[in-house]
Amino acid sequence: MSEPDFLLTYPAALSAIAGVLGLVVGSFLNVVIHRLPRMMQKEWREQAAAMADDNGLKECAAKLRGSGAGPHFNLVVPASHCPKCGHRIRPWENIPVVSYLLLRGRCAACRAPISPRYPLVEALSGILAAYVGFRYGFTLAALGAMLFAWSLIALTAIDIDTQLLPDDITLPLLWAGLLFNLAPTYVPLSEAVLGATAGYGSLWAVYWLFKLATAKEGMGFGDFKLLAAIGAWLGWKMLPLVILLSSAVGAAVGIALIALRRHRRGTPIPFGPYLAAAGLIALLWGEAINRAYLRLFL
């Protein structure tokens, strides 16, 4: 029996393999979540310094470059290390979830606490990958759904930390959705293109209506691009469900935080996590939710 036949015959085996792969990818997602915003900030400082140079502001340019000085920094180098003491993470200390439990959530060298978000991201990536593998089997749809879910996890954590949705993730996610639907994998390509257009345009319209009415910005442009990406994967028919779910959950969480006095009125709340959660729900259970809704009200 060939490997593909084995995975098709035993979906539990495929689910287990996908889960392990998800744990490994989750470890890498933690690197992306931590480093990508800092890489963006460094790039912005370099661009600002170049503009200052062009305008003859040599001292300002020098300060900008000095504030961003340091060792080479990207998703690969330097090696993972403790931010408190600089201890280089050894391979056995970097096993997804397991190492966190063995170390009891602390650095092996200085015993500084490690954020529980690291194992949470790894576990969530693994669980979603395992479920997707079990549901879709050894198919292109499974691969796409895993990439979609992992991207949304990274975007959610980055938006919570920085209120940014990096183009380095949202735009490739959008194009990947269109490419996967060339098959079509989830929806026909025409629905994917309309989904991307309607996703961006709907939030763009809300943004400008809110700004004209209040003279304030209600959301960032990254939210437009994220909903466009979700539309490219799931098609325009899923957008009402995504918008409804994300708005309802966002409003409920915002009201709860204000009621618990953990959030001040007027302080921005990142909308990306709610869009991401709604997009994932729509991918996995959207058709069932829509059918139940139609049976209930029609």
Write the layout of secondary structure elements.
Blueprint: H1 3-9, H2 11-54, H3 58-67, H4 98-102, H5 117-136, H6 140-162, H7 167-180, H8 189-214, H9 221-234, H10 239-259, H11 272-297
Helix pairs in contact: 1-2, 2-3, 2-5, 2-6, 5-6, 6-7, 6-11, 7-9, 8-9, 9-11, 10-11
Determine the strand fraction and express it as a percent band.
under 5%
What's the tally of helices? 11
Overall number of strands: 0
Order of helices and strands: HHHHHHHHHHH
**How would the global form be characterised?**
globular
Low-pLDDT residue intervals, each spanning 5 or more residues: none
Summarize, please:
By secondary structure, the chain is an all-alpha fold. It has helices at 3-9, 11-54, 58-67, 98-102, 117-136, 140-162, 167-180, 189-214, 221-234, 239-259, 272-297.
Structure, explained:
The termini are far apart. By secondary structure, this protein is mainly alpha-helical. The chain is 70% helix and 0% strand. α2 packs antiparallel against α3, α2 (11-54) crosses α5 and α8 (189-214) packs antiparallel against α9 (221-234).
List descriptors.
298 residues, mainly alpha, 70% helix
